[in-house]
Each structure stands twice: as structure tokens, then as C-alpha cells.
Specification:
This protein is an alpha/beta fold. The chain has eleven helices and 14 strands. The chain has helices at 15-22, 46-56, 67-74, 96-107, 120-134, 139-149, 163-167, 173-181, 208-220, 240-253, 266-272; strands at 3-9, 25-27, 30-33, 36-39, 61-63, 82-88, 110-114, 153-154, 156-158, 184-191, 197-205, 226-235, 258-263, 277-283. Strands 8, 9, 10, 11, 12, 13 and 14 form a seven-stranded mixed beta sheet that branches. Helix 1 (15-22) links the parallel strand 1 and strand 2. Helix 3 crosses helix 4 (96-107), helix 5 (120-134) runs antiparallel to helix 6 and helix 9 (208-220) packs parallel to helix 10.
Length: 287
């Protein structure tokens, strides 16, 4: 039986501990800042981006990988009797998934999965893929199971400041000023039935701690449809007090077997800014 290698785009945000635990190979994206290119998570980190913006109003841009880069990444992994399951950022957000598919058609033995999600929303798929590979499932079966799982991933984030979204053209100056004036914290929802596109959900008002508490309750309280295997708390640079409070609320509301705290990398942080936090989990398949 062929060995199955799990690979993923760097915006999966599962963190170095899980990458090491599951031997996931990461395809690092590129970040452009002030006409210089950096490798996400290797040469540049989110705090570097925030500093450049606050000090110089320099706005970074993320760059998806092109087929030639995927080919250079995949080729060494295919040595011997190996197959690859690659999980990519949602096709509604980037052309990276299509580029991975183009490379897979050329090289063979590569099974791409459109996560239809972002950040730890598709990190949940990456961890599941790694566990299925450890169980000995072949690559085509892992691909199929992940494709079926995508519609059950629940990904959302509460945003503290709209300044980075406004700077990147993703919301208007008036919307940002209104949110600041009325102390509004919007919840961004991922549409996993639309390739990972996003929309604004509930808008919370007040201090971030209060809004986070309400957000967690809205997502988890009283629900019977949640797969309690694992939950991710993924943030873009939140104070420890936010994280601990959210962990306590999650524990009080649902009995998850595993709770992982990870920090979003540059690709996600570029767009959402600091102190964004999301609670990400999977719902049960319909009976």
C-alpha cells in the first residue's frame, strides 16, 4: 500500500505543534511588504505586519502559489511509492486550489481537496486527513471523506477592528468609522457552500470581552448537532485573557474532547488585523 502524505497551504493555521505531531507538509505562501517578498511563517510573522502598518501605513499583500511552485513542492514528496492528499484554501477565496489541481493532473498521485474554507476552518480538514492517513486509508478515500466533510465545518471570527479590512478595500471608511463610533464588533461567517466566501453575520456591541462571550454562546449554547471531537480557537494576536475566557466558555457549553489554540498566520492576519478570534468546529452528518 502506498504511503499517504498530507500537505496543506500555510493559511490552514493549525500551528507548529500539530504540524509536527501529524507530519503535515506545509506549502508556504508568500507575503509582499514594501516591494519585498517574504515566506509566510518563515521569514515574516503577523506582528511584523502590524508594526509596518502602525508605523508606516505599509499594507502587506498575500500571494497564492502558482503551478510551478506547487510542482517544486510536490515533486520531492512523490519519491518512492507515495501519494499526496493536499488541502487548499477555499476556491472562492483564491486560485491556489485550481493551481494545485493543474499540478496534480501533470504529476499524478496527488489528490487535491477544496476546503471551501480558510484558516483553522480548513485546518480541521487537515487534522482529519492526517488521522485518516494514520489509520491506513488510501488517498482517494481520504479525499472523498474530506470533500463530504467540508459542508459541515463551522468557521466564523469576531473582529476587533475594521482598520485592516478598510485599508485592504474590504469595507468602506464609513463602515469602519461607524463600527468604531458605536463600538461594534462584527462576526465574519464563512460560506462553505460557496467556496469559502464570507459575509457579515451578527454585529455585537460593547467591549471585546463581552462581545466574545456573546459570540461563543451564540455559536455553541444548547446545540446537539456538533461533533465534539475537536474545536479550534484561532486568533490573530489576542491577549491571553481573551483566550482563557473563551476556553472557559467553550468548556461550560460543550464537552469537546480536544481544544486547540492556534495563532493565525500572515495570510489571514493581513486581512483581519489584531485581536480577531474565531471558534471553529464541525457539525455531525445528517442522519
Amino acid at each position: 500500500m502506498s504511503k499517504v502524505i498530507i500537505t496543506a497551504d500555510s493559511p490552514c493555521d493549525i500551528g507548529p505543534e500539530l504540524i509536527k505531531k501529524y507530519n503535515v507538509e506545509i506549502m508556504n505562501w508568500r507575503i509582499m511588504l514594501e516591494d519585498k517578498e517574504y515566506i509566510d511563517g518563515v521569514e515574516i510573522f503577523p506582528d511584523d505586519l502590524y508594526k509596518a502598518w502602525w508605523e508606516r501605513k505599509a499594507l502587506p499583500k498575500s500571494s497564492a502559489c502558482v503551478p510551478a511552485e506547487y510542482e517544486a513542492f510536490f515533486t520531492p514528496l512523490l519519491k518512492g511509492d507515495c501519494e499526496i492528499v493536499h488541502i487548499g484554501l477555499g476556491s472562492g477565496l483564491s486560485g491556489s486550489y485550481q493551481h494545485a489541481c493543474t499540478t496534480a493532473e501533470k504529476l499524478g498521485r496527488i489528490y487535491p481537496v477544496d476546503s471551501k474554507n480558510l484558516s483553522a476552518g480548513f485546518g480541521l480538514l487537515v487534522v482529519q486527513a492526517a488521522e485518516l492517513a494514520l489509520q491506513g486509508l488510501p488517498a482517494p478515500e481520504i479525499q472523498t471523506q474530506l470533500q463530504n466533510m467540508t459542508r459541515h465545518v463551522q468557521a466564523s471570527f469576531l473582529i476587533d477592528t475594521l482598520e485592516f479590512m478598510r485599508a485592504g478595500g474590504r469595507c468602506s471608511t464609513m463602515a469602519m468609522l461607524g463600527a468604531n463610533l458605536f463600538n461594534i464588533k462584527p462576526c465574519i461567517e464563512v460560506e462553505n457552500d460557496n467556496g469559502g466566501l464570507m459575509h457579515v453575520g451578527e454585529k455585537y456591541r460593547g467591549k471585546m470581552e463581552r462581545c466574545l462571550r456573546l459570540y461563543v454562546h451564540d455559536k455553541l449554547e444548547g446545540r446537539k448537532d456538533i461533533d465534539l471531537k475537536r474545536v479550534f480557537i484561532t486568533h490573530s494576536g489576542s491577549p491571553e485573557s481573551d483566550i482563557e475566557m473563551v476556553k472557559e466558555e467553550i468548556t461550560a457549553l460543550q464537552d469537546f474532547q480536544e481544544c486547540y489554540v492556534t495563532r493565525a498566520g500572515c495570510v489571514i492576519s493581513t486581512h483581519c488585523g489584531p485581536r480577531t478570534l474565531g471558534v471553529l468546529f464541525v457539525t455531525k452528518p445528517e442522519s
